């Protein structure tokens, strides 16, 4: 089910029996109201962008119905989430805390994450290159070789610090090639963020933020602390474990979605605004719903990991990633993270 998106054009959200009545401005700057009624049974999560007018009564009802709410700023910064209190497994978190100083386990998990991230980045570039002219074949082969070599080095890394170095080198190779596949009117020259300096980076950062919220929700749903990770350092306010588990999904989920939206004109240059105060580009408020329609299609699209195999989708992939961490914490060796088919 698609999420209910509440943004700055929301005048109010009213609770009426078993549904919500959402009242929005019909047109920005014009005092005309559009009212829609959304049955609670059709909502599996709510995304609040900016400062929509939502009452405590509505948020409380969402909690009672088991519907999580995710909060983002209008510029796409993740604020946090309001989730039902299903995180009751204190013993699991105690075990996680006890393992947080286990450097061998951290390195083992981090190796797998970075190796898979590089492999998935390589696979994304292969798919994007498949329909390009033969003149790009040599360049793609060169990138394939470089990323393969870095994936092998990541698998054999002796410290988390050296592993991060291989990850950084792979990202440089990947992004230098990825820019070839963006449309001319929304070019991508290099990865930049905080703040994003162009529409391409604005859309990438926005997509990463939305996905991070889903991963963090899955981590908490399994009774784990999202701030205690293995690849990313533990630091105040950083959802390190959620960031860890998002790494293998950045290219196959976020980057492919961004390219699909831009190359098929689902989102255009006109859907972004320049903020002179912050010297940055952001997705316009009125374009958020268009984004979330495409995002939802990407997250729920069914695919199989192998020919004739069972079908899955990216929400199940996220859930399986958290389960892989649980298996690692139990001392099992038969776990791995998502590898793009």
CATH superfamily of the largest domain, by name, is CRISPR-associated endonuclease Cas1, C-terminal domain
Strand count = 11
SSE arrangement, N to C:
EEEEEHEEHHHHHHHEEHEEH
CA distance, first residue to last residue: 25 Å
Q: Strand order of the main beta sheet, please?
A: 1-5-6-7
Helix proportion range: 40-55%
Architecture of the largest domain, according to CATH? Answer: Up-down Bundle
Largest sheet: 4 strands, mixed
The first-level CATH class name of the largest domain: Mainly Alpha
The structural class is alpha+beta
- The global form is globular
Strand content: 15-25%
Tally of domains: 2
- Structural Rg: 21 Å
Explain what this protein looks like in three dimensions.
This protein is α+β, with helices and mostly antiparallel strands. It folds into two domains: 79 residues, Ribosomal Protein L15, Chain: K, domain 2, CATH 3.100.10; 240 residues, Up-down Bundle (Four Helix Bundle (Hemerythrin (Met), subunit A)). The protein contains ten helices and eleven strands. A four-stranded mixed beta sheet has the order 1-5-6-7. A hairpin with a 2-residue loop joins strand 2 and strand 3. Helix 3 packs antiparallel against helix 4, helix 3 runs parallel beside helix 8 and helix 6 packs across helix 8. The longest helix is centred in the middle third of the chain and has 27 residues. The radius of gyration is 21 Å and the shape is globular. The two termini are 25 Å apart. The mean pLDDT is 89.
